[in-house]
Amino acid sequence: MNSKVIFFDIDGTLINFDGEFPESAKAALKAAKENGHKIFLCSGRSKCQIEDRLLEFGFDGYVTASGAYVEYEGQEIFSSYMTEAQLKKLISFCEENEIIYMLQCTDSTVSSKRCLEIMRQGFLARMKDKKASNLEKIFAKKKCDDNIVGNADKYFNAEKLCYHNSKKDPDEVGKDLGEEFQVTSMSFSEMQKTSGEITIRGVDKALGIKKVIEFLGASWEDTVAFGDGPNDYEMLEYVHTGVAMGNASDDLKALASLVTTPINQDGIYNGMKRLGLI
User: Fold this and answer.
1) CA–CA separation, 202 vs 206, rounded Å?
2) Most exposed residue of 50, 127, 144, 217, measured as fewest CB within 10 angstroms of its CB?
3) What distances in angstroms separate CA 252 from CA 124, 170, 203, 232, one per listed residue?
């Protein structure tokens, strides 16, 4: 078998919604590396939101912020940031519609003090005490700024925006913002109608994967990806072999090359075993 380049979503794919990183997944990842395959995280999280246990695991690189930032062996190979005008438009839209939001930058997350506290408490309520340490990493590098529009020039590395508690569903938000933005539902099923992520149209996980392939001089035929959520559609559709977790939505499973077992039933290990990667 040729060496493969394998991409893994984090939430719902590598890390379950209890904040656990299954031992079977760790074993599969280590075995894949031993077999000569390259492994990449491919997440909607910005790099500053990725936990140390993942950063220190031994991944060859990262596609973060849904494709806006790409790194290989510690070297940045691609980045795409919002313009000041785009950033102002998004923040103003959220403020005018009383939407809770968090701006994701490469090195920090930024929002008003009010928004950050509401989001943090909301996630804690859903994730409960045993997952608090996982949540703290996501919010660790937060910045409070009650005048992001006025200070927009400071956030030159703004990658995407996540929003919560919207009275508009993602389709309505997308129509209001226009063609320059892509709006995607959140991975948490109970939040998909009221919460989402906003990226620059054309900047997605598939683009990040293309940048990796180009940099490595790898073949598209050797790409594999594992995912479970709404922001994994482009990724699974683009790669040669897209694997949907057993806990993924039915529409994601429909476009996948393979459906493995759920994350809590050794989904990563079983999927990689079926593909002959380990």
Assistant:
1) 9
2) 217
3) 28, 17, 19, 8
Q: Which of 46, 19, 165, 192 is nearest to 100 (CA)?
A: 165
| Whole-structure pTM value | 0.91
Boundary residue ending a domain (166, 182, 200): 200
Q: Which residue has the tokens 């690189």?
A: 61
Supply the pLDDT for residue 219.
97
Q: Cα–chain-centroid distance for residue 269?
A: 21
Pairwise CA distance, residues 87 & 142, whole Å: 17
Last residue of a domain, one of 185, 200, 215: 200
Answer yes or no: is pLDDT of 278 > 80: yes
Using DSSP's 3-state secondary structure scheme, residue 243 falls into strand
63 and 215 in contact (C-beta within 8 Å)?
no
Helical axes 84-96 vs 170-177, angle rounded to 10°:
130
CATH number assigned to the domain comprising residue 243:
3.40.50.1000
